[in-house]
Amino acid sequence: MLLVMDVGNSNTVMGLYKGDDLLGHWRVCTDNYRTLDELRFMLGMLLDQEGVSLKAVKGCCISSVVPQLNFDLVRVSEQVFGVEAVMVGPGTKTGLIIQVDNPKEVGADRIVNAVAAIENYRGALVVIDFGTATTLDAITAKGEYRGGVILPGVQTSADVLAEKCAKLPRVEISKPPCVIGRNTEDHIRAGLTYGYADMVDGLVARIEAEMDAQPTVIATGGLAHTIASASRRIQHVDSLLTLKGLRAVYRKNEKGTA
Known about the structure:
38% of the residues lie in helices and 24% in strands. By secondary structure, the chain is α/β, with parallel strands linked by helices. It folds into two domains: 2-87, Nucleotidyltransferase, domain 5, CATH 3.30.420; 97-242, Nucleotidyltransferase, domain 5, CATH 3.30.420.40. It has a six-stranded mixed β-sheet, sandwiched between helices. A five-stranded mixed β-sheet has the order 3-2-1-4-5, sandwiched between helices. Helix 3 (108-120) crosses helix 7 (241-253). It is globular and about 55 Å long. The termini are close together.
């Protein structure tokens, strides 16, 4: 079995594959200071929910944007599963042609998203990941990663709004029935959902013009469904895109027989 892990700034998403079948997937808060023992205990509990023992894991692939956790994540793979983890980064085989000034600067999560998008969709692509930061990545029909856009995430913007504006409350992010709200909470929800949807739509139009193509637009990340419901340009929501990409990268690097 193959365990894949995408370690983000706010959340860590994990999936357990048996061949092409995803047996289970989990989302937990990222803790920058988890010890090796804590990681071992957490993984043991999650796998136990699916009736799987730690010894059943024969492969591990990790993407991480939290460098301080990487050393212990690799040690967990070695000491708990007895396998060498594929840590997505410079030198990892992805099949992706990266056409940016410094390929080492591209986040591992963005790389695996692009790999998954190429394997699951056709033609030119734009991948939007709604995480702590919202990212847009442009991929040509030839599988070339052209670059992209980074802006504050939806939840990040909501948190800053509540912290910096004393009279504004924290709200659950959801799409209100109309843009013109009748109360403060809906004013904020409208700004976050319709505002981000229109911003994303505008950026996609600009990317489309620069690519001279009509890309398929795929969204992933925790708030993808919410923003996609207000967007005119998002065509697909694939909440498992990053996990699919990690499985694909693992296979390209031929580690074990998971």
